[in-house]
Amino acid sequence: MTSTKTRRRIVPAASENGDTADKQDQLLLSAAICNGEDLGSFVRKAFASGKPETLLHHLKHFTKSKESEIEDVCRAHYQDFIVAVDDLRSLLSDVDSLKSSLSNSNNKLQNVAVPLLTSLDAYVEAKNKCSNIALAINSLNTCVQLMELCSRANFHLTKNNFYMALKCLDSIEMNFQDKTPSTTLKRMLEKQIPAIRAHIERKVSKEFGDWLVEIRIVSRNLGQLAIGQASAARQREEELRIKQRQAEEQSRLSLRDCVYALEEEEDDEIDGVVDGSNGVNGISGFDLTPLYRAYHIHQTLGLEDRVFIVEDRVLRTGGGLISKMEVENLWDTAVSKMCSVLEDQFSRMQTANHLLLIKDYVSLLGVTLRRFGYPIDALLDVLSKHRDKYHELLLSDCRKQFAEALAADKFEQMYMKKEYEYSMNVLSFQIQTSNIMPAFPFVAPFSSTVPDCCRIVRSFIEDSVSFMSYGGQLEFFDVVKKYLDRLLTEVLDGALLKVINSSIGGVTQAMQMAANMAVFERACDFFFRHAAQLSGIPLRIAERGRRQFPLIKARDAAEETLSGLLKQKVDGFLSLIENVNWMADDPPQGGNEYANEVIIFLETLVSTAQQVLPVQVLKRVLQDVLAHISEMIVGALHGESVKRFNINAIMGLDVDVRLLESFAENQAPLLSEAEANQLKSGLAESRQMVNLLLSNHPENFLNPVIRERSYNALDYRKVVAISEKLRDQSDRLFGSFGTRGAKQNPKKKSLDALIKRLKDVN
């Protein structure tokens, strides 16, 4: 037996009395062999020292020591082996006795069982014959019943009584097919039963297909009728909204709230047609029997999933033909496909009118389906998703239309011969300045650009509202307003700016454009009111959120262009300032020539412009021109062309400025006294400069209070440069500017020092 105990590791004992090296090597070798270690080191050491005989001697000594141990082990187990052999010999004798006993018992059993087995075989053979006879009788009965069912099934098939034929087939399969003893009959049944069912399915499907062909015509008429009723309902709602807008327009100044409720009519006409309870337009009730028959047969065949009718009345009357969940799932599938088609087609469309047309059809379809309880949110979501694209295309179309309208405009006042022209071009956009009908022919203060652009904007508003008003959506004014803002601030304003910066070539055209901008300001108010009315928002609510004029960039550019052209005209007259005698012995009594020419031009301008320009526009332009004239007068004194001048020349300039101020004051009947004074303020710089040069106390200029009150338009540098151009030192306002080291009046010392410091800073 193999011992499972771990071998004890032998460690050589240390020599207590200093044994010899040879004895120690022997102990180490014995320990290594007992521990199963590698003896290579001992071999190498023996050969290295030249004493292999010593190693061999040690090995032999170890062998002899182990032989005695082996002999002791053998002597210890020898006695046990002898005992085991004796036990085996005793067992062999017992086995021989058992074998003899078994042989005798077997012989006795054989002698008794042979007669019994012979009788049993005879009994089994007789019983098998009896069973076969009974089985043959049962098989014949089964075949008779089977043939009766087959005959009955054939009879029902010939009479097109498919349900009874299928019931016969089910009975054959359930009761006879697996029990049929004849393999021939079984093969026949396995082949013919599926063929008969396929034949029945084809026949029923053909009848159902014929019914679908007939019902398709009726369904189309029903759909047209349903959409027509939905369209009529939408038209009635639109008429009510128009009445509401008209009523609100009439009562806009009143504090009363006008409330309208849309009347809903219950339309049972469609249900009546489907029920067959009445006849409308020749589409009286249709027969659903083929549908129910087809479903019943498919149900019997276990093919219910092949029926795909989505119709509310079939759901309610089909007796389980389809469930509500199936209808909803099938409707979701149909909506998903419609949405996919719409997404694809919308992505391809590049014309706003096409998008609007498809949207109108889709929304009408949605309204019709919603009346019958079908959810259409997914369809409306597709429309909402393409809202931005539609408006971008609409903005692009309007941009082209604006460009064409502006390119065709000659910037001449419109001439209207008839009242309908006035109504079409003025009243329809509420841009009239008076509610009194003018006499005809009538010359409008605007050119053809205004009504043409107004029509484009109005069409944009109506198209935007039409697109946003799908599915009964009510609160969409903010969206319409947002895109209307973009149309005005980006598209129309940009188109006007482009024309102003590139196509305006004269004062007449610039004046007409500025007049157009004033009319556009009234038109923009109408645009937002019109958008609110079409969106069903009360005007008083829409007017609360009014914003600044959206065409302000174009308006400012038009007025700047007009002012610039007028300044160019004025500059031509101001060039006569070179003829002024700056060292005159006496001041001119009637003003200088340039001033008289400028006054004549300005008076002519006002008489012409007041027929076209609104008062406020004319005031802003005149004020800008007068400020330019004032700047040019001061610039002439400050410029290099005037080296020196005397007090008489300044007195002449005083007369010129008074003439210009008188012109401004004379505009009070046209404007108002306050606005005339504001117009007069455009001459502030030249007036203050002349007053300072003629003042007996010019040192007051350095007083902050007086300077803020009387000289706030003057620049320090111009004052210093102009003051040095007086005729001689005695006439100068500030003598220290031209002399150094001269004795000065003590009263002027502080003033001269301050002005000198200002010169250094500047």
UniProtKB/TrEMBL annotation:
<dbReference type="GO" id="GO:0009860">
    <property type="term" value="P:pollen tube growth"/>
</dbReference>
<dbReference type="GO" id="GO:0000145">
    <property type="term" value="C:exocyst"/>
</dbReference>
<dbReference type="GO" id="GO:0016020">
    <property type="term" value="C:membrane"/>
</dbReference>
<dbReference type="GO" id="GO:0009846">
    <property type="term" value="P:pollen germination"/>
</dbReference>
<dbReference type="GO" id="GO:0006886">
    <property type="term" value="P:intracellular protein transport"/>
</dbReference>
<protein>
    <recommendedName>
        <fullName>Exocyst complex component</fullName>
    </recommendedName>
</protein>
<comment type="similarity">
    <text>Belongs to the SEC15 family.</text>
</comment>
<dbReference type="InterPro" id="IPR046361">
    <property type="entry name" value="EXOC6/Sec15_C"/>
</dbReference>
<comment type="function">
    <text>Component of the exocyst complex involved in the docking of exocytic vesicles with fusion sites on the plasma membrane during regulated or polarized secretion. Involved in polarized cell growth and organ morphogenesis. During cytokinesis, involved in cell plate initiation, cell plate maturation and formation of new primary cell wall.</text>
</comment>
<dbReference type="GO" id="GO:0060321">
    <property type="term" value="P:acceptance of pollen"/>
</dbReference>
<dbReference type="GO" id="GO:0090522">
    <property type="term" value="P:vesicle tethering involved in exocytosis"/>
</dbReference>
<feature type="domain" description="Exocyst complex component EXOC6/Sec15 N-terminal">
    <location>
        <begin position="58"/>
        <end position="227"/>
    </location>
</feature>
<dbReference type="InterPro" id="IPR048359">
    <property type="entry name" value="EXOC6_Sec15_N"/>
</dbReference>
<keyword id="KW-0268">Exocytosis</keyword>
<feature type="domain" description="Exocyst complex subunit EXOC6/Sec15 C-terminal">
    <location>
        <begin position="379"/>
        <end position="725"/>
    </location>
</feature>
<dbReference type="Pfam" id="PF04091">
    <property type="entry name" value="Sec15_C"/>
</dbReference>
<dbReference type="GO" id="GO:0006893">
    <property type="term" value="P:Golgi to plasma membrane transport"/>
</dbReference>
<dbReference type="GO" id="GO:0005829">
    <property type="term" value="C:cytosol"/>
</dbReference>
<dbReference type="InterPro" id="IPR042045">
    <property type="entry name" value="EXOC6/Sec15_C_dom1"/>
</dbReference>
<keyword id="KW-0963">Cytoplasm</keyword>
<dbReference type="Pfam" id="PF20651">
    <property type="entry name" value="EXOC6_Sec15_N"/>
</dbReference>
<keyword id="KW-0813">Transport</keyword>
<dbReference type="InterPro" id="IPR007225">
    <property type="entry name" value="EXOC6/Sec15"/>
</dbReference>
<dbReference type="InterPro" id="IPR042044">
    <property type="entry name" value="EXOC6PINT-1/Sec15/Tip20_C_dom2"/>
</dbReference>
